[in-house]
């Protein structure tokens, strides 16, 4: 049985990772660092 909260967390990690990749590709270091911090916070909760 799937766990909706877990699925939401996984989707949020995927979304943040894609945004981070885009920010890095386009040289937006400030946004990349903000996204890294958000990913760290999210994964520390897991």
Describe the structure using short key phrases.
46 residues, 2 helices
Summary of the model, kept short:
This protein is mainly alpha-helical. It contains two helices and no strands.
How much strand content do the residues show? under 5%
- The portion of residues assigned to helices is over 70%
> Quick one: how many beta strands?
0
Distance between the termini: 19 Å
Alpha carbon gyration radius: 12 Å
Order of helices and strands: HH
- The low-confidence runs, each spanning 5 or more residues with pLDDT under 50, are none
Assign the structural class, choosing from mainly alpha, mainly beta, alpha/beta, alpha+beta, or little secondary structure: mainly alpha
What is the average per-residue confidence, as pLDDT, rounded to a whole number?
92
Bulk shape: elongated
Biggest sheet features: none
Individual helix count: 2
Explained architecture:
With 46 residues, the chain is an all-alpha fold. Helices cover 85% and strands 0% of the residues. The protein contains two helices and no strands. The model has no long low-confidence stretch (mean pLDDT 92).
